[in-house]
Amino acid sequence: MDISAIAEDLGLDEEDYLELLDLFVETSRGDLEKLAAAIAAGDSRQGLFAAHSLKGAAGNIGLVNFSKTARFIEDVTRRGSFDGVAEAAQALRSDLEQLARDRI
């Protein structure tokens, strides 16, 4: 991930972008917990809300692939389904933890 290029695309300096990235990691962990709880409970509405939050936050800071995966979850849960959602949620969790490790 080219932090400098993404920051520039968003009109931010690199330091400000890194602060946003840290906040994204922190809040997304909570959203992923909400998504996991929704999956466990079979609550597509709560899954939709969590996925929507993840999608928007990732899109706002230029994490296109993360946002696309969250969009998939949002679309599926909007239909009241969970087909492929657990796998997609695991991919998001792995991507998020990799992002956090890269920040250390």
Brief sketch in words of this structure:
The protein has 104 residues and is mostly helical. It has one domain: HPT domain (Four Helix Bundle (Hemerythrin (Met), subunit A), Up-down Bundle), CATH 1.20.120. It has five helices and no strands.
Task: Characterise this structure.
With 104 residues, the protein is mainly alpha-helical. The protein is built from 5 helices and no strands. It has one domain: HPT domain (Four Helix Bundle (Hemerythrin (Met), subunit A), Up-down Bundle). Helix content is 83%, strand content 0%. The longest helix is centred in the N-terminal third of the chain and has 28 residues, at 14-41. It is elongated.
How many individual β-strands?
A: 0
Structural class: mainly alpha
Q: CATH fold name, please? A: Four Helix Bundle (Hemerythrin (Met), subunit A)
By CATH, the architecture is named: Up-down Bundle
Strand proportion: under 5%
> What would you call the shape?
elongated
Strand and helix order: HHHHH
Low confidence ranges: none
Mean pLDDT: 94
* Helix fraction by DSSP (H/I, runs of at least 4): over 70%
User: Largest beta sheet, briefly?
Assistant: none
The top level CATH class name: Mainly Alpha
Radius of gyration: 14 Å
CATH superfamily: HPT domain
Gap between N and C termini, in Å? 15 Å
Total domains: 1
